[in-house]
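Look over both lines:
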Amino acid sequence: MHPYTISLKSLFEKNANPPNAVPMKKYMRDQFDYLGIKTPIRVALQNEFIKENGLPPLDELDSILRALWSLPQREFQYTATSLLGKLENKLEPEFNTTVEYLLITKSWWDTVDTLAGHSVGTHFKRFPKVREKYLKKWRKSDNFWLRRTALLFQLSYKKETDFGLLCEIIQENLGSDEFFINKAIGWALRQYAHTNPAPVKKFVKATKELHPLSRREALKNIGE
């Protein structure tokens, strides 16, 4: 294991709070173990660690993130996504291979949504050719977490959102009975509606096959 990860692991384990770990694990439907470190304390510990040790060197970031991802407690995956976020504007195009690994490993909404809405969104904006390559793959994937990422990567784009592309990807997922896909469709539409509600209303009205969950989420703040 990378020395950076070993030191971070030691710091977190010294601050574990087992009584907190039980409800945290239950909240996440027993998908993962926890140290019981709540978010404000985890962020403070992480910031303290970075102050003393710096951010990971870019040429070692892949191995550090994968090492953090391999640890059983979920706080380490949260820290990995945070470290990635702090360096996302410095990544080389090929780093999306690592991001894809994080998306499809230990997948759940907490890490996938953070990666999709931040690091993936930033990376795709910086590197249009990477976006083209991976979207072509992800939007047709059997892995619904990758399809969810394809739906959500534009969450922060606002006026720069390619609404036509979003609608295309939504159309490809119509008829899905996967909760996380239908929820993502509604979330993506609702997010863009903050910037431009008219086309969202028009799309929802015209798309009769839209799942009720997606429809409800999309119109939550703008009404019929």
